[in-house]
Amino acid sequence: MNIIHIYLFGLGNVGSTLIKQILESQHFFKTHQGIELKIVGLANSRKVLTTADGIGDDWEQEFAQKSITRRSDAFYDFASSYVEVRIAVDATASKELSHFYPELVEQGFHVVTANKIANTLSQEFYDNLRLLLRERDLSFEYETNVGAGLPIVDTIRNLHKSGEEIFAVNGVFSGSLGYIFNRFSEEELPFSSIVLEALKNGYTEPDPREDLSGNDVARKLLVLARETGLKIEFSDITIENLVILDLQTASANQFIDRITELDKPLLHRKSLLQPDEVLRHLGKLDVVNKSLEVSLQVVKKDSPAGQLQGSDGFFEIYSESYASHPLVIKGAGAGKAVTARGLLSDIIKIAKSCPIVIYK
Ligand SMILES: NC(=O)C1=CN([C@@H]2O[C@H](COP(=O)(O)OP(=O)(O)OC[C@H]3O[C@@H](n4cnc5c(N)ncnc54)[C@H](OP(=O)(O)O)[C@@H]3O)[C@@H](O)[C@H]2O)C=CC1
Ligand SMILES: N[C@@H](CC=O)C(=O)O
Questions:
Q1: Is the residue at 292 inside a domain?
Q2: 141 pairs with which residues across the strands?
Q3: What CATH number has the domain bearing residue 123?
Q4: Which end of the chain has fewer CB atoms at under 10 Å, N or C?
């Protein structure tokens, strides 16, 4: 039996769903795959809990009663007493935590993350992290960085690793902006009310401005661009910001209080549409010309992007073998269940690649 210790940062939409999925599937992994998954560490931004036996269904109560004020080294102290494979899982959107990945790796943790920030800091940080991972023989998995549970990162990585030249990746990279513009184009609802629903459904980032500003999609483009081997920085990306200037620097609460101020400019964009047109939020990664662009576009209703429904993401990959007919991946591009399942799949990938530890 391979025992895997999981240390989870972030207990929100994605983190709490991951806990539920792990607890529900523990028996399956044990009996069918010889893997025992134990969640032995939990942290939110304020509190941390460690437990040698692993958490159970009553984890929320246990966390409320037994967690202590968060110290960044609480997991290291605890983990140092155990030989089990340790995986740190990041289900936060925290920049601070992303800067801790090298330290986590130094402490012997594999890292699985839904958080895109570490992969989109400077190229120097990106390269150094990978160097450290190689030196320590540890893994870093982040399939959920692009397209939530859809297999986008792995597809691009496998094509690139097999020597295939990738020319471009275009599409609707954001599940929340997909949901927002699919509905806004067709329904007579204020833009702000659809954004608030996307937030309530767990599709947006914790601060929806990360989506509306184009930054979240820009991060996804950058993750894929670097996967194809491009050396490129976030500041090289051309991004259209849909948040009016006044609200760009407001606090998160002020933004929500004043969100209806977005309605007028977006209604104007909608009023310019022809009957056979809709608005879609598109990302364009042109690998050949090293150009990355994020913008709101008018597309024909009967085009592939124009026909999308719900929170669907849509990715067209153009490469040597898929030059005129792109490889297309489509499906839910956001949501807590699909994202948590993607994290779990990354955890199992690492668990399967680790040698079995013999316990005396
Ligand atoms: N929702 C989706 O569809 C998808 C999400 N993702 C990514 O998943 C991540 C999480 O999203 P989501 O679950 O919706 O976000 P939530 O806002 O629901 O949850 C965020 C959690 O992170 C915790 N947190 C914040 N900072 C820290 C920190 N420094 N250390 C430990 N915990 C911290 C928060 O704690 P507290 O409550 O104390 O603030 C909270 O528990 C994001 O990076 C997002 O981009 C990726 C793909 C799809
Ligand atoms: N906010 C993101 C969630 C996943 O990364 C999106 O809408 O796609």
A1: yes
A2: 112
A3: 3.40.50.720
A4: C
242 lines ligand 1 (CB under 6 A): no
Residues 289, 223 within the same domain: yes
Residue 35's alpha-carbon distances to 25, 118, 143, 319, in angstroms, are 11, 28, 21, 37
- Answer whether 6's CB lies under 8 Å from 325's CB: no
Task: Point out the ligand 2 atom lying closest to the alpha carbon of residue 176.
Answer: 7
Predicted TM-score (pTM) of this structure: 0.96
96 within ligand 1 shell (Cβ under 6 A): yes
Q: Do residue 27 and residue 118 come from a single domain?
A: yes
Per-residue model confidence as pLDDT tens digits over 142-164: 999 999 999 999 999 999 999 99
Ligand 1 pocket check for 144: Cβ under 6 Å: yes
From the candidates 38, 220, 301, 336, which is the catalytic residue?
220
Does residue 220 have an active-site annotation?
yes
Helix (H) or strand (E) run with residue 328 in it: strand 327-332
Compute how many other C-beta atoms are within 10 angstroms of the C-beta atom of residue 168: 17
Q: Are strands 68-69 and 110-113 parallel, antiparallel or unpaired?
A: unpaired
Q: Given the CA of residue 206, which atom of ligand 1 is nearest to it?
A: 17
Could you give the number of structural domains in the chain? 2
ipTM of the predicted structure? 0.99
